[in-house]
Protein 1
Amino acid sequence: MKIYSILFAFITLFSLQLVNAQVRIGIDGLSHDHVHGLLNNHKTRTDIVIVGIAEPNKKRAQELSGRYGFDMELVYDDLQSMIEETEPQGVVAFNSIYDHLKTVEVCAPKGIHVMVEKPLAVSVEHAERMDRLARENNIHLLTNFETTWYPTLYKAFDMAVANNVIGDINKVWINDGHKGPVEIGCSPEFIEWLTDPVLNGGGAVTDFGCYGANIMTWIMQNEVPETITAVLQTIKPDVYPEVDDQATIILTYPNAQAVIQASWNWPVDRKDLTIYGKEGYVDAPNQHDLEYRLTRNSPKEVMRVTDIPLETNEPFNYFAKVIKGDIVVNETDLSSLENNIIVVKILDAAKRSAAEGRAIELK
């Protein structure tokens, strides 16, 4: 019996240590389909524990509860109630882009860190308010992009930016998108706000233009472009009557140019990047394959990339490590507040450019 008592005490102690090691995470909203990435393995995680969910749509909550096995007792009608009852250390926002500001307004004064799904905000006004709240209350405010976790992105950056092996960068092409949220079968709850010009801040220009703005800002180490020129179209007005489904954005810098192509009309899914230098190029057609030429006369070479030079390779573990102080977020990092303020300024200028038919200068 003594052995069993010792074993039981050991297991109890280990369990308590595990619980104490886990970062307490709350979820604000379940309408963003990217929430599946968090819920899919939440029961087996040892880095974070979901302590509460704010979601007024109980039908949506019940659907996801049945699918992923979280207890409906975790679900609250609003964020304020959830926070008061569960005391999370961080909150991940899976609501509309418009509601990101509301999430920060509730969390920041309570010292609760926030990570939102891309982009940071629907407007510069919202972004600057969120920035002030985060700084005044000393919280981390991060933005998560799927491409932040692509190994090829870091290898391309290492070659073209950090080590300048293709010569000075003069042009970057970034393509992102898919057939369209309706066409690929996004949930009705997601589509409802994703295709709303107020709640999403636009259509494809917001949904996929933000990837290119984020990556180019990273490549340029937070240098703000001199001009932004954009053309927005709605190719399928019967499907997307209120927002654009096709966007082309051109960014100019003193010695470089970026072309961002965001679309809900691609025949295939795309998240690819090509960086051109004075002597060569590096092309990342997906998250693992890389093609490059170091000089004009060198042969084309290819490589398979699987490692990310970060302390983690997924967003929620990253958020937990930032909260615990294990990772320091640099101003030029892809998830940083500084980068993503610039992203919102670029998207805002792109929408103005398309509406006014002219290039917009950023000071």
Protein 2
Amino acid sequence: MSPILVRIKRAVLSGNYAFSEQARTEMESDGLSEGDVTESILNAVAIYKTLRSTSPFRRYSGEPLYVIQSTNLEGMAIYTKGKLVDEEGLETYYFLISSKRAL
């Protein structure tokens, strides 16, 4: 398992995560709960892909975004995209930008 995925899982297990408004909207439209999303992250065996942010609203250009596709405990495939956030040099939480059912 990749060291990045281990860090993401530890942040989620510790309750150190947050959802963007977009992620919350996607979850609601797909009927997903916060538990569904966290279960899918904890069940993941790999990061599906890493993207570089092109958004002008990001902290810095090229910020890595991690895409995880995995199932919750009921077998529902879920897609999440998020980033690890550092505050004052300490990794504090995993911020989910997108959370929806995987196609």
